[in-house]
Amino acid sequence: MAQQPKHRKALLGSLALGLALTAGVLSSCLTGGRKAGVQPALTLGIMPSVDYLPIAIASEHGFFDDSVELVRFSSPMERDAALQTGSVDGSITDYMSAMLLQSKGQKIVLPVATQGGFRLVFGHNEDLVRLSDLEGKHIGLSSHTVIEYATEKALVSPEGKTLPFTPVEVQKVPIRLEMLRSGELDAAILPEPFATLAATKGLRVVSLPDGIIEHITGLALLRKSYETKRPAVVSLIKGYNKAIAYMQQTPREEWVGSIVQLLGIPPEVALQLQLPDYQPATSPDTTHFAPILEWMKTKKLVPHSYQATGLVPPLPDLQ
Predict the structure, then answer these.
(1) CATH number of 12-19+118-206
(2) What does the pLDDT look like over 226-252, one tens digit per residue?
(3) How many whole angstroms separate alpha carbon 55 and alpha carbon 32?
């Protein structure tokens, strides 16, 4: 079992770098297929993460038939708050966040599975080479999130028991990366592009055990938007599929600018960034909810009776 989270004060330099990186990926709203003065058919929240890349490329290349406005957020909390208040029609989110929102009464659906990227990053301690070496070490995470879930699932003994470790609460990913570099953390699971950035800084990056965090994100939409804006939803999904086909058929050098703009990283890093195996839109496999939901119940994040009923609707006809 993990101990209670331990809060540590990051160095001023860590905070400065974190704020700079965060500012680097923020910008004004992007629009796709939208004319001046025209109300967007859909408004989507996006973040600097690789699972949003097909949507960003679809917007930039005009693959959406209806206008889609992309609104940038700097943290999952801001994104989820926008969903809760109806400030956006939807966003890509992880299954845990979607189930948390639904369990609290938010009427949302997850019609499309998406692909994200997460890897484990070791700090500068050269004695740490295997997952088992992290027993008792300081691991950066954000409590009650899919990162905490993945950390506990990854750090297990050969007998399948969670290895004890000291969780260090660090919600901002850029600061988590800097604390790894400064030696304040022994390891942390980071999303892309931060895992690749860590590798460029000389930190060791490894893939997580199969199945832990491969199928955890999807496109979440307000149920009302999904039901009343069906033509725009169909346009969104078709544009998403067009973007993936474009990425698969076109050298990365031709769309590297989209990565740079979305993620706020240098072109040379964008060219070597490990991207997911993007797939055309399919419905989420609800069997992937089960281990996450079981963990959420052990943490008392959702009622024991909660079953995520109705979270995944039928995929709309794209013809």
Answers:
(1) 3.40.190.10
(2) 999 999 999 999 999 999 999 999 999
(3) 10
